[in-house]
Structures are given as structure tokens and as C-alpha cells.
Amino acid sequence: xxxxxxxxxxxxTPGPLTTSATVREEMLVDRCTWDKDYxxxxxxxxxxxxxxxxxxxxxxxxxxMQGSGTFGVxxxxxxxxxxxxxxxxxVNGAYTERMCSILSYHHITFKRMDFAWDSIPDAxxxxxxxxxxxxxxxxxxxxSETTTGILNDIEAVGKVVKAAGKLFIVDAMSSFGGxxxxxxxxxxxxxxxxxxxxIQGVPGxxxxxxxxxxLEASKxxxxxxxxxxYDQWHVMEKDGGKWRFTSPTHxxxxxxxxxxxxxxxxxxxxxxxxxxxxxxxxxxGMKALGFDAYIDPTHQGPIITTFFYPENANxxxxxxxxxxxxxxxxxxxxxxxxxxxxxxxxxGEIYEEDVKRVLKLFQEYLNEVNHA
Length: 372
Ligand SMILES: *Cc1c(COP(=O)(O)O)cnc(C)c1O
Hints:
By secondary structure, this protein is an alpha/beta fold. The protein has helices at about 20-25, 35-50, 70-80, 95-105, 125-130, 155-165, 185, 210-215, 230-240, 250-265, 270-290, 315-325, 350-370; strands spanning about 10, 60-65, 85-90, 110-115, 140, 145, 150, 165-170, 190-195, 205-210, 305-310, 330, 330-335, 340-345. Strand 13 (about 330-335) and strand 14 (about 340-345) form a beta hairpin. Helix 2 (about 35-50) packs across helix 10, helix 5 packs parallel to helix 6 and helix 11 runs parallel beside helix 13 (about 350-370). The protein is globular, with a radius of gyration of 21 Å. The chain binds pyridoxal-5'-phosphate.
């Protein structure tokens, strides 16, 4: 059954994003948290996520955690390090800055390596840093930095982190499901993502793909009751898909459907191709209109692009925002401090026809201000 889509605009934002009407339709049913059907739904979601991560259930597990993506990141960072651990954070955007804040809040020992926000953390430099700082026991980074749109090289960094025998924590919030990530091969011990990004669900929970041995070793380290990753996992395992506290039932049902739709689309490879094609069309079309991208094409990811304001005296972000919104698309402000930028996400129910329409709207807006 298809239902009439009541949305009046599509989101060019990296999550919450535009979901399918059929995903939203799943939320029309109220479900019981301790009922067998619902627990099975949770278990299916956990198993599907492991499969998408190329991980087997013998060595890896999925923990679902209430809250937005940051709750998942905080759950990992506040539950995994013990008193003697030291976390190295590879900072090249707002989301790794946020990791440092989380570690500070919990008084966890950490070090940071800073990289320019338009460049990726260099594996060679990380290798040297680890040699010189043997007190570091864990390394944390972001895969797709949604602040800028850059796609960091988790494979190269993973190699040096593993060679040094450290734990590897990756925030793959805005890439998992849209970019193929082989968790065991890269050597990721904890990967964090959330319901409302590339799997194309609605907001309400995050999920953690964890290496079981590393998770078990963290027992008793949690600094917060509600974000205790080990205990959340323990209850879900022991009770066959039971969430520790009230679970976002409607969100989980929508997510369950979203995973099925990812499979129907052809899996991660096909979704990635759609995202990459839309992103390329968008960047090329915007460039032709005079909008330059912040990240160069070699490191630009397929999820979101940061554009500089054009050199046009009549241009205003607010004016452009209103014009696009009144014609069916919502754009996203920038997050850089040194220059004025805005961002266009192309994940969610966004297709080539949308990109063509959006480019035409930017053209129309520019024509309008140029003749003002
Ligand atoms: C979306 C996102 C998060 C989490 O943000 P929330 O607002 O808490 O959902 C964390 N890291 C990255 C890279 C993200 O894109």
C-alpha cells in the first residue's frame, strides 16, 4: 500500500533526512516493548546491522541505545575507557571536537592531534604519535565529517592503530549504510551510527557495532547509568531483544522497515552509487553557478557538501533559504567559523530528479537577485 505523502518539502540535510512514506507508515502502530514480536524486531535489526558491517555474531555484537547519535558516542566514550586508559582523538571537525568535550565532562584522560578541517588525519603522523605516546590505549576518529563533508581514511588509520595494538573507535554516523565499511577488516572495535542517517530511518536511537571481547573487558567502567554500554548490551542479550529502559518502539519499527528498503534498493553498494552520483551532479552544477566547494574532490565524501557563499553583492543566505523552501527543499547552514558557508546534504530520499530541480532553483534565485 502506498500512502499520500504529506511532506511539503524535502530535506537537503544530513539527518533527520527525508524518509520514505512507507518507513513513516510503520509508526502508525503502537507496539509493546516486552512482547515477543517487538523483541524479535529488535533482534532482527541488530543482526541486519552486523551483516551490513560484514561482522559475524561470534566476535561482534550490536547494541542499540536510546537518544540521538551523540548519546551513542557518549555511551562508548564514557563506558569503554578504564581508569588507566588514555584516548587519542584525531580532530578535524566539530564532531571530534565534541568527542573531546565528552571526554572532558567525564574526566577521562585524552590527547588530541589537530588537523586542518579541509584535510584528512594522516596515518603516518598518527603512527609516529603513537610511538612517541605509549600511554595512549585507544584512538577515536570520525569517518564522514558532517561538518565539512570530508571523508576520512579510516582504513589507513586503522592499520597503524591495529599495528600499535590500540583499540579503534569510529564515529561513522553519517556514512554507515551509505559507504561500505568492513568493520573486522579495518579493525574497528566500536563503530557508532544512528537511525536517522544513511539507513534512512527517523531519529530516536543510535547503534554501536562492538567487538565482543573489548565490550566484555569494559564491564564496570561506565560513568553513567543510562549510557552504560555494557549493561545495555547485557540486558538485550539476556532477554532476547529487550531494551533496558523504555525503547523508542515507533522508531525501531520504522528503522526495521528502512533496513528492508535498503536491501530492496540493492544494498549499500547501490545506495552508495546513488549518493555519489547525486553528490557529483550537485557539486558540478553548483560550481557552474559560481558556488565553490570547501573540500577538494579527492577527499570529498558522497554525503554532504560545504559551499562558500558566492561573490554576489545581492546574495543573502536567508533569501536563498526562503526561496528554496517555498519551492520544496530545505538547505542547511554552514558550521565553519572562518568563512561563510552553507551545506547541501544529498542522503535520504533524494534522487537525480531532485538534484536537477534544486540546481534549477539556485539558478532562478541567482537570476532573481541579479535583476533586483
Ligand atoms: C549526526 C552526527 C552525529 C550525532 O549528532 P546528533 O545530533 O546527536 O544526532 C555525530 N557525528 C557525526 C559525524 C554526525 O554526522
